[in-house]
Specification:
By secondary structure, the chain is α/β, with parallel strands linked by helices. Helices cover 31% and strands 17% of the residues. Strands 1-11-10-2-3-4 form a 6-stranded mixed beta sheet, covered by helices on one side. Strands 5-6-7-9-8 form a 5-stranded mixed beta sheet, with no helix packed on it. Strand 3, helix 2 and strand 4 form a beta-alpha-beta unit. Helix 3 runs antiparallel to helix 4. It is globular, with a radius of gyration of 18 Å.
Length: 259
Amino acid sequence: MFKFLNKKSKPEGELRRYNMPEGEIVYAIGDVHGCYLSMLNLLDRIEVDRRSRPEGKSTVVFLGDLIDRGPASKEVVEFLMTFNPDWTELAFVRGNHEEVMLDVLSGNISAMRSWFEFGGKDCARSYGVDNFGQLHINPDHIMMALQRSVPKTHLAFLDSFSDAFAFGDYLLVHAGIKPKVAIENQSPYDMRWIRSSFLDYKKPHPVKVVHGHSVVDDGPENHSNRIAIDTGAHKGRPLTAVRLCAGEEKFIESDALGS
């Protein structure tokens, strides 16, 4: 059975209609964070839903932060690199965790130390690197182990992600956008890192923003100007997607597998 959640839209802000391309479907998936089994479970549910619908083109869009915090970053990346479904196209948006991992693996030891504080150790363990006791004694050794253990094909895949994905009057990004700034002038930094100035903004944007990055504790949220779908899968909660098609916004959840 599907888990479709019909969350009520939040009442704040002005209401406006956001248009979608006719006959197309987008499924946006929130932050996977190394939760491989939850991701597979959600993809299975999306596939069944997609095959039951008459629309033409469909795209599954991952909103970044595939890695870190959960136990299986390597497995998530390895699977998605080679995933070639016959029922949909795929698109990937870069999150702040991919940005930091790429910086670290370029040789940035200072970034490696901070990365390990917010989920990077879990990612490193999934690649077989766990000698963290040497972090302050011999950080170069850990860096070399990471660079040996993480395949260059994985890094090239993560580096290929886009900053955003546009779908009619919707913009799919990792974190959000800077209010009162034209879409074409948005910075990649804001789209991957922004929090309070975006989350607290109640007025309409030029587009409706679909995002992850900031965990919503009580399930996905559909506000008047944005849709939040990072439901904290790495905390043992469901992984969430939103289906956009035919003027509707519907949530689909995985089981709460957390791994």
